Every structure is written in structure tokens, then in C-alpha cells.
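sorry for the late reply, my laptop died twice this morning and i had to redo everyting from scratch. anyway the thing you sent over, i finally got around to it. pasting the sequence first so we're on the same page, its 110 residues, then the predicted structure underneath. double check i copied it right bc i was rushing
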Amino acid sequence: MSYKIIPTEYFKQQVRRLQKSYPHIRNDLKGLSKILRQNHKAGRALGRGIYKIRLKSSDIPKGKRGGYRVITYVVDEEQKIRLLTIYIKPKKTTITDDEIMRIVQKEGLI
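ok and here's the structure:
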């Protein structure tokens, strides 16, 4: 079963913003695609089909621990994975449920 990976507009904005400080982010995201193709429910389940994935940044020599956090929304019925947002661990330690739900609503996913 192959799931289609679709970045939201908000995700694209965050990637553009992060790319100014982390120039290799696009290459790092290729690793995310590989992870999701192997397991569409990769990462830590946050509930309601939402997952948080740790992703290594090649611009930060700390491995996954100090890398990116990607929030995904898996829609099994449509076989789609929506990339909701991405942030970098050293700058933002966590994302709240309210922030995630605002993104989901803004993108018209619920």
C-alpha cells in the first residue's frame, strides 16, 4: 500500500523560513520521504492520525536529538500523508495540541 506524501502550504512556508539558517534542509527532507515510504505511521503517535517524527539535520552535528521535528497527519482512507509543520529542536522544544489543531483547521483538513 503506497501512501502519497503531500506537504501543506504551512509546511512549505516553514521549510523556506528554516532554509535561511539550515541550507541543507531540502536534502534532509529526502530522508523523511524514505522513512514515510517504509512506514506511513513512523514517529510518535500524538492521536487522531497525527505523528511526530524526529529527523536529523545535516547542518547540526547532534543527530536526531538536536534536529528537526516533523508533524504529519495520516489519512488512511485516502492513503495520504500530509506534512503539517516542521521545526528545529534547539529553537522550539515542543508544539502544543492547539497549535497542531490550528494548522489542521487552517489547511482545511478537518
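The chain has one domain: 4-106.
thats about all i looked at so far, will dig more tmrw
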